[in-house]
Amino acid sequence: MAISVETFFLAPGFQGTLQAQIQQLIAEGILSGRFRRGEKLPSSRKLATHLGVSRITVTLAYTELLANDYLTSRGRSGYYVSENAPVPPSFDPPKPREDRIDWTRALGRRFTGGDTPDKPKDWANYRFPFVYGQTDPSLFDHANWRLCALQALGQKDFTALTADYYDQDDPELVEFIARNTLPRRGIIARPEEILITLGAQNALWIAAQILLTQRRTAAIENPCYHALRDILNQSRCHVDAINVDRDGLNPALISNEADVIFTTPSHQCPTTATMPMDRRHALLEHARNIDALVVEDDYEFEMSFLDAPSPALKSLDTEGRVIYVGSFSKSLFPGLRLGYLVGSEAFIREARALRASVIRHPPGHIQRTAAYFLSLGHYDALIRRIREALKARRAVMQDAIEQYGLTVAGQGAFGGSSFWMRANPEVNTEILAQALKSDGVLIEPGHPFFTDEAPPQNFYRLGYSSIPSERIPEGVSRIARALGQR
Amino acid sequence: MAISVETFFLAPGFQGTLQAQIQQLIAEGILSGRFRRGEKLPSSRKLATHLGVSRITVTLAYTELLANDYLTSRGRSGYYVSENAPVPPSFDPPKPREDRIDWTRALGRRFTGGDTPDKPKDWANYRFPFVYGQTDPSLFDHANWRLCALQALGQKDFTALTADYYDQDDPELVEFIARNTLPRRGIIARPEEILITLGAQNALWIAAQILLTQRRTAAIENPCYHALRDILNQSRCHVDAINVDRDGLNPALISNEADVIFTTPSHQCPTTATMPMDRRHALLEHARNIDALVVEDDYEFEMSFLDAPSPALKSLDTEGRVIYVGSFSKSLFPGLRLGYLVGSEAFIREARALRASVIRHPPGHIQRTAAYFLSLGHYDALIRRIREALKARRAVMQDAIEQYGLTVAGQGAFGGSSFWMRANPEVNTEILAQALKSDGVLIEPGHPFFTDEAPPQNFYRLGYSSIPSERIPEGVSRIARALGQR
């Protein structure tokens, strides 16, 4: 690649000749790794015009660098970074500028230090990755997604691809969700009651911003999705964490102070408990009595392979009390980052305005590709395939867990993609996870899910969406061995 | 398409027989537009199993609907929504549920009612769209973007496409920005000092969340980008609006109370003024003296076709005082929604954590596609083409504006894609814009850019990125006619 003339600027305060300055610009570019071996420099005429200096100054600088073997000349075709030019040391990045800002004072608010743990980014390099929420490439319908993306990249859809939607969504995607996705959960909604979000997490975040303030109380499940707790802590509301039981959240334990109840009735996160229908009705009634709203995170409902999924809480809601969070990310692929909010128009209006301020709208091309993938039936086929694969894997998991004597702590009625596990009380699963890592096994320590001041350390989660069936028994046996159970 | 069995749920409180309920489910589906003519119903066996009722109940319901001509039977192949079935009235969407929530109380915070005006979504249907910030499809390099997207959709990049990046960015895109894009603005930054955002607006929003609180003061330009004012109003900081002159923001007018200074030195938005180098130095010095940070929105720097762009303010910053906002959206296409923040590591760390909480990360596929498009040189070629087209159009605009006696209020040194215009003081450009709309001409009223309590009504903006050259003279003449100047 040619080095653009536009990367050259003369520094006003430079001490030295123009020629020296030009030499230094080029040498620094090479030493910092910005200019690479074999790259072509601008012609001396071009660079001279750009910098407003005489051409001879540039030529002299180039000649000097030739002598130093930073550059080579290829006759008429010009100057190139020499193949012998010094390589920037890979271990020593360009020295940071001296930062003179007192960032402890300058930062008005901090967002680091939340409860959400760092997850290993190189999980795919481990032989036994019992990680959660990542995709198995062998299950994804890559060919059809590619075709849909191509279609969405066609001339006809150019507008979807390039236009600034302002605060609007892709109408085809919204229509599909209204006509096909939501009815499967028993939900009837008009387009004005639906907002596309950048994944389920974005939907939860938006709901929290709109519904909560420092003076309000959110009731959450304990344990719960740690990123939700980060979101609520940032909104500075009071958080009331309610211990779940084998049927999920117990409405009788929700205090009258709660303004918003966050719940995962289909698959309690992380215990995978399924809330029975009568408790769903009781939850709605309790919410009505204390005049609270309910935010239902219906993640993974498509992964119900043990039994048909129950209708969503939202489908039982006749008052507009439930705000529903759905997502294609988990089931399609997490990197897609598409979800949706369903709620009363008054709420969706505010959500749309907030989203416009924060991100304007999710990229149009992705919305349109998803709309094609959904409406051509590929999504249903994909879900079926994933469901079957997970069902098979779950059976292998179940057998291995029994065989090696591990203890399942949470049990969902409908399936899902993980087991919630309990080790003996003296086990610290954070330390266990570290030890297993060097044995090629990734497990997820459970303590970040808990809101308790002293969270139990002996829980862990085993995901099976990214580990092939044939590796499961060996992986589980290694966990058992590390636990000293074999 | 077949109607999925999963869209059927029995309502627990239904008054009537099971058969009647099934009939009603189907009829309602048809009447609400969810089930469409010609769509296939689930087999009676399947639906019976799903609902847990006897098959004869379903068969009887289907037979009844056959008689009513809601359904037709095609022998062994099953039941279909009849071609004679009632069509849902298009003017009368399904009746909304009765909303029993007092939303005035339930909404903790409101985000609607900001300063950002509604823009016409059907601008492409107007013959003379002097709109700003939309793309001209005829200029975009559609073929190569498609090829890059295809490459990013390939097996090799499957991870980029599907993985949950947690809080990370696409390393190839970040590297390209560090090595190629930023150096053109005179900026050297390490990957730890760069964060990919969902467009420039998202970058501004993130910066405001981190740097501002209710007790802090933001200095902004007046007039300025209205969405920035919305963002700052939401953060509830004190806002100090400083009138710009022909050289943009005058640092001497910034009060000592300012904690963060938001500025657009390359092309002041909306006046298009370019800040001269000496004023840039003065601005940095003033910021240092009052210990304020500077957020530099460097939008449209690539659109400098009248003169080479000045180096960014950030390139003059030796202290980490400047936070730089860049974007590919405006120059590539607004629907892409990719931008970036450059700043000290301490700041970027917080920005990354906040972004992870709000959206996790921008979709991987789009980041990778952009990385290819950039690194293969298509972006540079595109910018050159757009720059030449805009230069030609600007010349036509200039001529027409002179010919028809309109008044340019703001003048940038480097080009851009719009003119900032002033009508006579008695003209209300909001009313003018309305009148011109029915004449096929779209102009942008200027008052939303002003922070004044009584903003001047006689300014307007004329964008020329979406109107072909040959229509410009006629469009400008219509504006002049509406202003009574011909």
UniProtKB/TrEMBL annotation, chains A, B:
Residue ranges annotated for the HTH gntR-type domain, each copy included: 16-84
Taxonomic superkingdom: Bacteria
This protein's UniProt keywords: DNA-binding, Pyridoxal phosphate, Transcription, Transcription regulation
PROSITE patterns: HTH_GNTR
InterPro entries hit by this protein: Aminotransferase_I/II_large, HTH_trans_reg/aminotransferase, PyrdxlP-dep_Trfase, PyrdxlP-dep_Trfase_major, Tscrpt_reg_HTH_GntR, WH-like_DNA-bd_sf, WH_DNA-bd_sf
Coiled-coil segments on the chain, per record: none
Pfam families assigned to the protein according to its UniProt record, in alphabetical order: Aminotran_1_2 (PF00155), GntR (PF00392)
Family: In the C-terminal section; belongs to the class-I pyridoxal-phosphate-dependent aminotransferase family.
Designated name of the protein: Transcriptional regulator, GntR family
Organism, as annotated: Shimia sagamensis
